[in-house]
Every structure is written in C-alpha cells, then in structure tokens.
C-alpha cells in the first residue's frame, strides 16, 4: 500500500525525496528472500525501456540528492523569462515612482532646518564629587535651619574633558526632583555650553549621561550575532540596515522638517527602504519581487486606513513631543500627517517579515510538489500564514504598547473611566497605530500568498 507523507484535500501529496531508490513497484509487498538466493540488482543497474504513455517518475535534482528535506531557504533559482517580464512590468513603474517621489520631495537648495531656541554645544565632562545640601547660589551661605518645605539640591563638581574649557573644573547645582537624574562621582556626563564665559558656571548645564561606549558595545554584539548566524546573508542584512538609516537621516527627516507632507515622504522613504533592504538581503529573484509587491500593497492599505480613521477620530497628532517639535521649528507642521508617517514606517519591519515568509513558503511547496496549481498553493500557503499572522500582530501590538507605557501609566492615574482613557489623544493615537498596522499585516498574508501562488505556478519545473 502506498504511504503518503503529507496529504490533504487542497494540496494533494507532497513527495519526499529519499536517499535510496526503492526497489519495489507500487502495490507490492516485501517478502522474505529464500536463504542462499541471489540479491537482485538495484533498479539503477537494470536498463529498462519506458512503457509508452506511462509518465516517468521525476528524478531528484542533483542539489536534492542525499537530503530527506529537499530544499532549504537558500538563494532562489533564476526565474523563467515570462515570470521575469511579468514582475518587471509590475515593479519597474513602482520603483520609478519611488525615485521620482524622493527627488520631488527632497528639499533641494534649502538650508537645513534649525531650532528656534538655542540648544547649546555639547561638552563632555566627568563628575569628580557630589554634595547634597540647601539650594544656594554661588557665594551664598545658609544661616540657621532651612524651611521644612525647602527642597535639597545636588551640587556636582565636574572636570571638562573636551570643548573650550578642557581640563577646567566647575560646580553645578541642581534641585533634587523625582525627575532629576542622580549623579555620582565617576559618572561621565554631557554638558550644554551656551557660548558664554568658560569660567562662569552659568554658561553650562548638565544635560545627560554619556552613553556612547555601552551603545557601541551592544551594537557590536548585535552585529556579531547576526554575522555568526546569518554569515554572508547576515552581513547583507546589516548593510541593508545601515542603508535604511541613511534613507531616514538623509531623506525622511530633512524633507519633513522642510515642510513637505510627512505621509508622502514616509511612503517614498518606506518604498526606498523596502527595495534596498529586501533585494540586498534576499537577492534579486522572483521570490523577493513577490515579497516587494505584497509589502507595497499592504503599506498602501495601512496608509489609507490610518488616514481614514485618524480623521474620523479627530486625531490632531499634537502630543507632547510633536508640540515640542513645532515650538523648536518656529513654524507649523502637519501633525496628523506626522502621525500617519509614523504608522507607515513603524509597520514596515513587520510587513517585510510576513511577506518574505509567505513567498518562501509558497515556493517551497511548489518545489516539493511541482504538480500543484495556484489554487492549491494558495490554500496551503494561507494555512501557514494563519499561524504566522497571530504572532506578527502580537509583536506589533506589544511594540506599540511598550513604547506608550509611560503614557498608559500617566493616563491611568487620572481616575476617570476606561472609555475616557482610551479616548484620550495620546492613547487613541496608539490604538490607531496598532489596529491600522495590524489590519495591514493580516491583509499582507492573503495578498502576498495569492501573488506568490500565481507567479510560482507559472514557473517551469526546471526553474524551481
């Protein structure tokens, strides 16, 4: 009796390539060989004339031989000519539109945006000692006991390690508040220098801790882990990540600060990041091109849904950070568009993961059983996608919830009902981000799967 490795109503059997060829014909059973009888020669040593009209069983390809699982997720084989032409007709106009959008939206010839308020020059320093006591100005002396409600201050002695006052010492006093960082001797800090007299402590202000070394170590550990596991593909992923940051820093941020539409800038920037990251990481192949198409369609859906429901919910986008940005710019900015831009860019990373996984799954199903049609491939791929989409949506929700955790905690202290909390501007923004992004991720599964099934089913067997 034939044993089927995997079967269902939609996909039919998925054949497994084994190491050793079977010496039995279908429907026969193995019987014990009489003692002393000669072992028959393997079928490979018996040339046999193929019967007319009988379909010859597919032989394993050279790269399949010797593996119980025929294919991994290595580089995809070159696509057939008709598939390449179809994908070119679909993708070239989108790539041209992305480049044209970046050229039109970039602030050519405009001076870089500057803050309307002086930010000061960053100067590094080291804390050499701290004293807790009354809040006194330079030269003042405390007489008697301080008032009961008086707040203490922390006086820090510092030595500047760079800038115009390198090697000089100064004392800075800060009131001790719940939101004030706690500095101790040996801490490396960053000062803000307003350009005044270096000998005057009023020319400096403690801004933050120095974090360069720990962040560089963590980045190095991350890069090492990616390269050790991914090898050359991991190195390509790191290069793609660096190029993505360049697109954000050199195109998205300057264009938005120059007054261009944040949503249009985000769509053009996300398109550029997607093309660069996917093709550089996964190679120039039909499989990657299908993932690009699925990602683009899902990004458009996320942008449309975000625009519709942010307008319906009367979201202004004017949270604390946006209000501070507008104050620093000295002119208005499309705050709602900035909210939508954040939704599009934030969902891009999860979408890449979903679309690449779906296309790879469909291609592997077709390789395992080349007789599957596009409907069967779609049904099998969709079942794989259902398992993936739950974890992907949960990832997006938890990412937004983690970023908005201080806002959630602050809003919950108000003592109002749950409905009022969820309807607050800051919380409603996160809800729109999460749900619009999640709808796009859910839609990416059937959209990418049907595109992959249609393309993969048209691939000749020798191109798989």
Secondary structure layout:
Blueprint: H1 81-105, E1 121-133, E2 153-160, E3 169-175, E4 188-193, E5 204-209, H2 212-257, H3 262-282, H4 286-312, H5 320-329, H6 335-368, H7 374-403, H8 405-412, H9 418-423, H10 425-456
Antiparallel strand pairs: 1-2, 1-4, 2-3, 4-5
What is the C-alpha radius of gyration, as a whole number of Å?
Answer: 32 Å
Q: Low-confidence stretches at least 5 residues in length (pLDDT < 50)?
A: 1-13, 15-37, 42-75
Distance between the termini: 30 Å
- Biggest sheet features: 5 strands, antiparallel
Helix coverage percent: 40-55%
* CATH classification class of the domain at 81-107 and 259-463: Mainly Alpha
Give the overall silhouette: elongated
Beta-strand share of residues: 5-15%
Overall mean pLDDT: 79
Task: List SSEs in N-to-C order.
Answer: HEEEEEHHHHHHHHH
- What is the count of DSSP helices, taking H or I runs of 4+ residues? 10
Class inferred from helices and paired strands = alpha+beta
Biggest sheet, spatial arrangement of strands:
3-2-1-4-5
What is the third-level CATH name, the topology of the domain at 81-107 and 259-463?
Multidrug efflux transporter AcrB transmembrane fold
How many strands appear in the DSSP assignment? 5
Q: So, CATH architecture of the domain at 81-107 and 259-463?
A: Up-down Bundle
